[in-house]
């Protein structure tokens, strides 16, 4: 086979794979992950089921591809928010990343539900999803690492009975950060997605009206719990705007 023909087949495979995943996302929005069906995807695309199986041998393979794409998209949003606030202090970068994660979730509710909603019965995510799943968390770890290596972090209180677990988590997730910070960071990360999930799935209805302000305050409080509590020095130029006092 010539290189030209091989390249054309590769491009066609990429295009068909993208079309399959796009149709699957439409099914997620309409029916939810539990009802995702390869036969239904094939029917909507005008493909024979046997042809679709050459791209995704099972529903679980398709789910895994969608999950990796969702995690990567979320990670890219977190990284973009971090980069946009690169000249700001750690608290502002923390807040910017949290707002970037929330913005992505509100813009992609069905993909958010796929990765942080109710687990799909009978499906177990394989190890191949881990690198994509870690991207957004690594952004937060990076902010804390920069703070720790710069002005420092205030160590949150840590009960003696939790220390062995905190030490283990630190060894696994961020060996260069104090165990006290890592344990609190994991809790803060869970609380971040709790805030987003409550908003996205309706638990804040008739409870929180000004959700932007409420969210910004809540994630600011989370920043303090992980040790970002010190005053910073000098004005910092906000991205695209005049210099402002950092926070």
Automatic annotation (TrEMBL):
UniProt keywords (A-Z) are:
DNA-binding, Transcription, Transcription regulation
**What is the name of this protein?**
TetR/AcrR family transcriptional regulator
Organism expressing this protein natively: Streptomyces atrovirens
The reply to whether Transcription regulation figures as a keyword in the UniProt entry is yes
Supply the SUPFAM superfamilies for this chain.
Homeodomain-like, Tetracyclin repressor-like, C-terminal domain
List residues of the HTH tetR-type domain.
14-74
Q: Which domain of life is it from?
A: Bacteria
Q: Fetch the InterPro entries from UniProt.
A: Homeodomain-like_sf, HTH-type_TetR-like_transc_reg, HTH_TetR, MT1864/Rv1816-like_C, Tet_transcr_reg_TetR-rel_C_sf
DNA-binding annotation, residue ranges on this chain: 37-56
Could you confirm whether the keyword Kinase appears in this record?
A: no
